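Q: A reviewer asked whether we had any structural model of the full assembly, not just the individual parts. We don't, so I'm hoping you can provide one. Inputs are below.
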Amino acid sequence: MNDVYIWGSYLVTFALLAAEVALLARRARKGK
Amino acid sequence: MKWFWYASPQTFLPLAGTIARWCALAAALLTAAGLYIGFVVAPTDAQQGEVYRIIFIHVPAAWMSMFLYLVMAFWAALGLALNTRLSAMMAAALAPTGALFTFIALWTGSLWGKPTWGTYWVWDARLTSELILLFLYLGFIALRAAIDDPRRADRAAGVLAIVGVVNVPIIYYSVQWWNTLHQGASVSFTRAPTMAATMLAGMIVMAAAFWMYSIAVSLFRLRCMIRESA
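A: Here is a predicted structure for the entire assembly that you could use as a starting point for your response.
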């Protein structure tokens, strides 16, 4: 039952960190 | 170390890239190690069951949210005092990552609170002051973006960052100063840890991973900002 809270925490955290990296990579490509 | 040589954005650009790449590699390795300790090595908690495993990201994210604010304010203050362009850029490069970790601390804390406390949110001193920290980060980003002249934008946002520092000790000591639903600190420099060694190790390794991640991402963002301003 509590699995949903653990998955919700970890997936959202790493999705947000990955999104930040992806946005930065796009910004770096645009800037070149 | 040639501090003044590296105070110029253009000369710092290649060094920032090198540091960022090594920190990104360290962050990936430490994250893998932290997840392994958190999910495989650390035992199930006697009282909370499996849901306590959220603390392996919640506590390091909360630490980073406060620490990054102090670092951001330090660079903002240095930028105001010495009028160095790179210092203000460093502060601006740290803000989005700090805001992200503040949001992660609030989000994961909320998802831990529901099964443990029975509620996603209460307006207690710890949670409220951490929410104010998120608004301070967002305010810093918004204020800097709202002013066209970069020098004036850096000065205004820098003052906001310094004034907001007062909130960091309030967050840290809130659990001692007020009667909060949030528990007191489990890890302290002056007391023995109140948790199993493997649990503490998982938290420390994930904190190191988030630290490396923050340095890498902030320096990558700084490189983008330097390139865009050139």
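A: Points you may want to mention in the reply: The helical segments of chain B are 3-6, 9-41, 55-82, 85-117, 125-146, 150-164, 167-177, 197-229. Chain B has one domain: 12-43+50-229.
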